[in-house]
Design brief:
Number of domains: 2
Largest sheet: 5 strands, parallel
Low-confidence stretches: 9-13, 21-33
Mean pLDDT: 89
CATH architecture of the largest domain: 3-Layer(aba) Sandwich
Strand content: 5-15%
Helix content: 40-55%
Length: about 350
């Protein structure tokens, strides 16, 4: 009973995944096999199924896909992304836009072959669910050297989402405006093991004020999942502040609740749209994350980049739950946060 009470307090259990019962057993088997045959079709072709279950944030999943696309480019395999039979935290229970594949909620297929065709074929390779050590050395998708050509070739946002982004750009981003894009993570990132520390509110304001004065930004576009952060910025920047009506919370994992229809799909769509808008800002300030890396990678203009780094949280799951809060109250001269 004690273990049951302590587990959700001391660990990050993550959201429930939506498996089909007939797929779950196949998933467990395939996870330990590199090559499998499902039939006699396409005998001269080798398909490379990119899967990641349960996966992580949207752009962590995209970065994972990009790393495997580097492999298929080298060996001339045919890639497909299967986030249908191997669901992620973004998958909905029911079909969305005629698809159960969470990749296709947001992006077009990366090849001309369907999953149905692949799973009737002779030679099918499956990825694992994790980044290899070699991949972690080239993890950052904003690296032009590693990923720019692959992004242009394979990562194509669905047209309905691109149209929505174009509409929002016209609405909020005027030609004469010099917009500072802000992306700061909050909520569970304050306690996430081994992740970069989120920035406290007072340091956030100090940084923004400095950048506005130095670079003459007259608008601010903020993307954050932390409601407390947004409320704080609204208080000080009022009409200068641009933000979208997205789901926000305080110190809670957004995937462990389901407060609206298609909630998980919408979480992914919202961060994708915000990221594409960040990529259109004149400048960008951030604590480095997959979202900031994606915004830089997607940008077609030269941006002023203003990164912040406050150090990393502990890898110990017990220490990490309190370390950020402890450093927040300490003066900077004895180990507290400073910029």
């Amino acid at each position: 009973m004690l273990k049951k009470l302590l587990k959700p307090i001391l660990t990050n259990t993550g959201p429930k995944l939506y498996f089909k019962k007939n797929i779950q057993k196949k998933n467990l088997i395939i996870d330990h096999i590199n090559l499998k045959s499902f039939g006699n079709r396409n005998k001269k072709k080798i398909f490379y199924v990119i899967k990641r279950t349960p996966g992580a944030g949207l752009f962590s999943n995209v970065t994972y896909v990009l790393n495997h696309l580097k492999i298929i480019e080298k060996f001339n395999f045919i890639p497909v992304v299967d986030m249908q039979n191997f669901p992620t935290i973004y998958n909905e229970k029911k079909s969305l836009n005629k698809s159960l594949n969470a990749w296709n909620y947001y992006f077009k297929n990366i090849s001309n072959y369907t999953l149905d065709e692949v799973y009737k074929s002779k030679n099918v390779i499956f990825t694992s669910n994790f980044f290899t050590k070699a991949m972690l050395t080239s993890y950052d998708m904003s690296s032009k050297k590693n990923f720019s050509n692959i992004i242009r070739k394979y990562i194509h946002v669905k047209s309905d989402i691109r149209s929505e982004v174009d509409h929002l750009k016209k609405k909020y981003f005027k030609n004469k405006d010099k917009v500072l894009g802000i992306h700061f993570r909050g909520t569970t990132y304050k306690t996430a093991r081994g992740h970069a520390f989120p920035i406290p509110k007072k340091l956030m304001k100090k940084n923004i004020d400095f950048l506005i004065k130095k670079f003459n930004y007259n608008k601010i576009f903020v993307a954050t999942e932390e409601k407390d952060y947004l409320d704080y910025l609204k208080k000080y920047y009022k009409s200068k502040l641009i933000f979208l009506d997205t789901f926000r919370t305080i110190n809670v994992d957004a995937f462990n609740s389901y407060p609206r229809q298609n909630h998980r799909y919408r979480l992914g769509k919202e961060i994708l749209i915000e990221t594409m808008l960040l990529s259109n800002c004149s400048g960008l300030t951030y604590v480095k994350s997959n979202v900031s890396s994606a915004a830089i990678a997607f940008s077609k203009k030269k941006q002023n980049l203003h990164p912040l780094f406050l150090g990393y949280n502990s890898n110990n799951k017990y220490i990490s739950r309190w370390y950020w809060y402890f450093k927040k109250i300490l003066p900077s001269w004895i180990g507290g946060f400073k910029i």
